[in-house]
Amino acid sequence: MQEKHRGLALFTILVFIFLLGPLVIISITSFESGSILKFPPEEYSFRWYENIFKVEMFLSTFKTSIIVSIAGNILALLLGVPAAYALSRFNFAGKGIINAIFVSPILIPGIVLGFSFLRYIVVTYNLPIYLSLFIGHTVIMLPFIIRVISSSLANFDFPIEEAALSLGATRIGTFFSVVLPNIKSGIIAAVMIAFLESFNNVDISVYMTGPGVSTFPIQMLLYVENYFDPTVAAISVLLMFLTAIFMFAVERLMGLSYFTKR
Amino acid sequence: MKKRYLYLLLLPGVLFLTIFLVIPILSMIGTTFHDEGSFSLQGYIDFFKDKYFIDILLTTLRVSLLTTFICILIGFPVSYYIAKLPSKRKAILLLFTIFPLLTSPVVRSFSWMIIIGKNGVLNKTLLSLGLIQEPLNILYTPNAIIIGLVHLFLPLIIVTLVGVMENIDSDLLRASESLGASKIATFMKIIVPLCVPGLVIGSILVFVGSFTAYTTPALLGGKQRVISTFLYQNAITLNDWKLASIVATIMIVVTFIIISIMNGVAKKLNPKG
Predict the structure, then answer these.
(1) Residue B40: what pLDDT?
(2) Residues of B in contact with A18 (CB under 8 A)
(3) What is the structure's pLDDT at B159?
(4) What is the rounded distance in angstroms from the CA atom of residue B160 to the CA atom of residue A45?
(5) Nearest alpha-carbon partner for A136 in A152, A154, A156, A116
(6) What rounded mean pLDDT belongs to chain B?
(7) Which of A102, A120, A207 lies at the smallest CB-CB distance from B13?
(8) Nearest to residue B2, comparing CAs of A151, A93, A177?
(9) Which residues in chain B touch residue A116, judged by CB atoms under 8 angstroms apart?
(10) Which band of pLDDT confidence, cut at 50, 70 and 90, is reported for residue B273?
(11) pLDDT tens-digit map of A78-114
(12) How far apart are CA A199 and CA A15, in angstroms?
């Protein structure tokens, strides 16, 4: 029996080398001082980290990505929190259909969603690209916001709300003073997960680039197609830092269970 | 009173998604059935007659199926091992699983370009060990896409399966063993069947994810088109929006067929849901 477990442990180690190895390799190559990606690097330097800040398009698309993700997140919260509350709190006719509408951005393939945005929001509705990007990102963030906040509301004891109401508080007052503080950590976790989802998005953003407007991942893709120097490896390391910070925050707020529930 | 609140809470979100998601998608699907103003299936007939399109569709299906199969084959034993670990070590391994899951797909695909490229880490290592004489041609082939997709989706199936395996009542396992079943019999007769609903959900996620993935095939596939890169090419490079809409509609239909078949299977296997 001991034998079998040792085999399984070894197998697991190999799988984790497969999962994390590429990320380690990309991190090491980012310190190469020459102009071609090499592993292991011949001489180590921070040259390519400096290069990130010299390429104008990286700075401007980074700004676009941050603005679009934050603005989209705010709108998704304004639309999503009331909806998540209504869906968790009340039973009503047509709940299934409304639920389906709210999860549909996850079910429809991203690359299809992006095309329909290009065709209708950019071209037919004739909205500027920047605004279309913001709307598109709001659409894909909404299901994440609703899902995380709903699971947070599932743990909320609604009789507490009834108590506040019966003691004479208004519905809106009760929501802000009783419900909201109780799901605060869920909301913060939802914002972080939605932010990562939006910030890393390629499928939708790839259709919405115009004169001077593009997002950070799209700029990375473009750069990789044209140059094979370690700049993108250096960017990858910075992005992994960002991911790690967000992941630990979500873990503190919601626990790891968020990720293992489907 | 209650009703009015309900509408106020739901209306903004529903309205927003209707204008910016439901109507665009339905209009897009609608245009694929029109030909100069009248109803027609000609676009679809042409699509399924063209060998080039069918090739792309079949390649995509094959790549997705293989990816799903490999993910289950690797993911199942690893999840079993993780689920049985004491909680502290389990948490560490789960963090290592979730970290790649949240990392940008561009970063993850790019890292594979460094590894499997002609002058990549893998070829250099194998050449210096004398295991191969010529560098292997992996990058820009369907196999490269499969490697990238397995890397992309393996964490997803691991977290799904660990979640399911954690919920298996350990009393069941003790009961089975105390009644004389061997460890292997317990595994096959109790653990595997109880994991099937999780396996089904995990397979849906991996298969649909692989079928519709764009970044990984775009970076690792080279000239090898899959359906998502083909859609993008028609929409942007060739500006053939009619064909792009047909491809998009086919992708939606295939996705929904897969989800409903697998959900049916899951319901049948687990009537309690």
Answers:
(1) 86
(2) 151, 154
(3) 92
(4) 40
(5) A116
(6) 90
(7) A102
(8) A93
(9) 21, 24-25, 28, 248
(10) very low
(11) 999 999 999 988 888 888 899 989 999 988 999 999 9
(12) 28
Q: Is B271 a residue whose pLDDT tops 60?
A: no
* Chain B residues within an 8 Å CB radius of A80: 13
The shortest CB-CB distance from A224 to any of B93, B110, B212 is to B110
Q: Which one of A101, A118, A206 has the shortest CB-CB distance to B22? A: A101
Cβ burial of B243 (10 Å; 0-12, 13-18, 19+) is buried
What pLDDT, on a 0 to 100 scale, did the predictor assign at position A260?
66
At A254, list the tokens.
């919601």
A95 neighbourhood in chain B, CB within 8 Å: none
Q: Which of A22, A109, A138 has its CB closest to that of B251?
A: A109
Phi and psi at B115, nearest 5°, equal -80, -50
Backbone angles phi, psi at A179, to 5 degrees: -70, -55
Q: Which residues have CB under 8 Å from B54's CB, separation 6+?
A: B48
d(CA B272, CA A193): 30
Instruction: Tell me the CB-side half-sphere exposure of residue A49, using CA atoms within 13 A.
Output: 12
| Whole-structure pTM value | 0.91
Chain A's closest residue to B157, CA to CA, is: A260
| List of chain B residues whose C-beta atoms are within 8 Å of the C-beta of residue A202 | 105-106, 214-215
Predicted confidence band at B2 (pLDDT cuts at 50, 70, 90)? low
Give the pLDDT score at A91: 86
For A11, the closest of B21, B78, B252 (CB atoms) is B78
β-sheet bridge partners, residue A210: A213
Distance in Å, alpha carbon of A226 to nearest chain B alpha carbon: 12
Please judge whether B9 and A82 are an interchain contact, meaning their C-beta atoms are less than 8 angstroms apart: yes
Min Cα–Cα distance to chain A from B248, Å: 5
Chain B: closest CA distance from residue A195 (Å): 11
Is the ipTM value over 0.85, yes or no? yes
Return the amino acid letter for B125.
T
Of residues B55 and A154, more confidence is placed in B55
Nearest residue in A to B107, CA atom: A236
What are the residue ranges in chain A where pLDDT is below 50?
A: 1-2
Query: Would you say residue B191 has pLDDT above 50?
Result: yes
What pLDDT is attached to residue A102? 92
d(CA A238, CA A50): 12
pLDDT at A261: 61
Under 8 Å CB-to-CB from A41, ≥6 apart: which residues? A28, A29, A31, A32, A33, A34
CB pairs under 8 A between A and B: 238
Measure in Å the smallest separation between the Cα of B132 and chain A Cα atoms.
19
CA–CA distance, A1 with A7 (Å, rounded to integer): 10
Contact A83 B114 (CB under 8 A): no
Helix (H, G, I), strand (E, B) or coil at B218: helix
| Mean pLDDT score, B169-194 | 81
